[in-house]
Please model this.
Amino acid sequence: MRVITILRALPAIGLLASVTACGTSAVPDASGSGTTGPATVERPSANPQPVAAVMPDVIGGNAGRASEQMGAKLDMVFKDASGQGRTVDDPAEWKICGSQPGPNQQITDFPVVFEVVQVSESCQGATSK
Model:
């Protein structure tokens, strides 16, 4: 009986020894099926979609605050809408009468143009031609 019990255990011991020995190998897997890299590879789309941005409605607002809201990365210019051709040195002293593109329109061209007048002036009749 004792011999039969040992003989039954031998295949299990041999199988366990072979699995343990094969668990790690000093030879790299040449099949390329290793899991050292990411599971999926991201490739750029053949037809990338443009990033869409919409112009907020800033008409009547302070040009300095609009500049902060839009962010430093946006290419924008402030243009004197009074027709006097004044330079806008400090946008905080100006208010917005119009914008190109207009409010709620998609921004597709740069720079974004803010048509402005000084805070004490009226936008009525202001044109930036």
In short: Confidence is low (pLDDT under 50) at residues 1-7, 12-20. The first strand starts at residue 76 and ends at 80.
